[in-house]
Amino acid sequence: MPDSDSDATGDSGVAEYDVIVLGGGPAGENAAAYAIAGSDRTAAIVEPEKVGGECSYWACIPSKALLRPGHVLAAALGLPGIEAAGPDTAEVLRRRDEFVHAHNGDHDDSSQVEWAAQQGIEVIRGAGRLDGERRVRVGDRVLRARSAVVLATGTHAAVPDVPGLREALPWTSRDATNLREIPKRVIVIGGGVVACEATTWLSALGAEVTVLVRGDRLLTGVEPFAGEYVASALTAQGVQIRFGTRPLRVTRPAAVDHGEGRIHGGAVTVHAQGPDGETTLVADEIVVAAGRVPNTDGIGLDTVGLPGGYVEVDDQLTVSGVPGAWLYAVGDINHRAALTHMGKYQGRVCGDVISARAAGRSLTGPRYRAAADHHAVPQVVFTDPEVAAVGLTADAARKAGHEIRTVELDIAVAGSALARDDYTGRAALVIDNTTDTLLGATFVGPDVGEQLHAATIAVAGRVPLDALWHAVPAFPAISEFWLRLLETDRSSLPSGR
């Protein structure tokens, strides 16, 4: 339990904890748990919505629950002698609801609160804000941290400043992952991960989807061939992708907020500018997947001399520009790697740093620095086909000054042929010529996300290619493509190297 006493500024009943975390998502949960593990230190998580955060209820978990049935169906239809009907929408949504603990239109976070209690973490409901050094206000309550305050407030969906778009009450990712009814016609704005995944499950559930992409390809953060594979597959499923197209204005006279995941009123009209001029599109719903905005408004950054927006940190997740090494930021809010698993990783590093500083231990050693943020960030896009990537793309590696070579080939091994008759995929490696180690890897194909961790270990551990020759892939597994990549690379090198 926290200590309470009078504060020097006149506040009475100030509750003291060793660690206070603003934000109860996975990053904040990990930071709190690691900071107090194996000690008598105390921690509190301040959360205005649901403990478990965006990932548990509105992002990773529900989106993958919606995507998996389509993947399984495609895999089944890729084999002869198997007939399968389309997904049962009601059952797909029921299973999704089980994962997000949806009951009576809300999400139940009691299991997450119970987990926090088991870790010795107190959950405080409400919107927390900084109030000077080591101080946090939650409504009328004042909290004080003996060791650290951790900012883990995450981000929310951005809605572009397009005339009429906000008034049309578009769906954001929260609506798309928690959909209660399937719009017949959907317009998706964006070409990134959220846009591609939402398009995948909406199409699989029967919606007619049109995607408006400002640029000339999907998934600009990975190797170009990956976006090409996804675009080709979506197009084959009947999705219309309009590249070089941006919305000019949106009208929806009968816009009504019927609740999360429900169609928000009547038809929506989008006037868009494309390569061939202005065009008009009409749909039953519009999904905005155009980036994220940090949840930093109103959290008191100004009280510690910080501007708004994303919060800059060092590799120990300590906030830059705030003296005393007491303020930290983990997860999306620091804009280093906006992925749940990377936020959790940062939370673990942050918690270890807080624990070591509180106990007076040395901070030497790799466990006290978030090194993976710089060169070994893994990501899976759960489209069909999946995209799995880690480390640097070839373009990014060259821009960073590396002398590189690349190897790229189709995934065509015994394991992929046995997996399904229609298996198509591609794999690529980015290799540092100076050290002969991997800088990056990209795989595209069915279920390639399960192949990514081997590449992540190789990139993070800077494993020489000579050593990878002795990591023998099992036969007949799809992972045999690793051997083919190494063979292709060896055959391209001068004799004797």
Automatic annotation (TrEMBL):
Main EC class the enzyme belongs to: oxidoreductase
The protein's required cofactors: FAD
Gene3D superfamilies, sorted: 3.30.390.30, FAD/NAD(P)-binding domain
Source domain of life: Bacteria
GO molecular function: oxidoreductase activity
This enzyme's EC code(s): 1.-.-.-
Coiled-coil regions listed in the entry: none
A Pfam family that the UniProt record links to this protein: Pyr_redox_2
InterPro entries from the UniProt entry: Class-I_Pyr_Nuc-Dis_Oxidored, FAD/NAD-bd_sf, FAD/NAD-binding_dom, FAD/NAD-linked_Rdtase_dimer_sf, Pyr_nuc-diS_OxRdtase, Pyr_nucl-diS_OxRdtase_dimer
Residue span, Pyridine nucleotide-disulphide oxidoreductase dimerisation domain: 377-481
FAD/NAD(P)-binding domain segment(s): 17-347
Keyword line: FAD, Flavoprotein, NAD, Oxidoreductase
UniProt similarity note: Belongs to the class-I pyridine nucleotide-disulfide oxidoreductase family.
Name of the protein in question: NAD(P)/FAD-dependent oxidoreductase
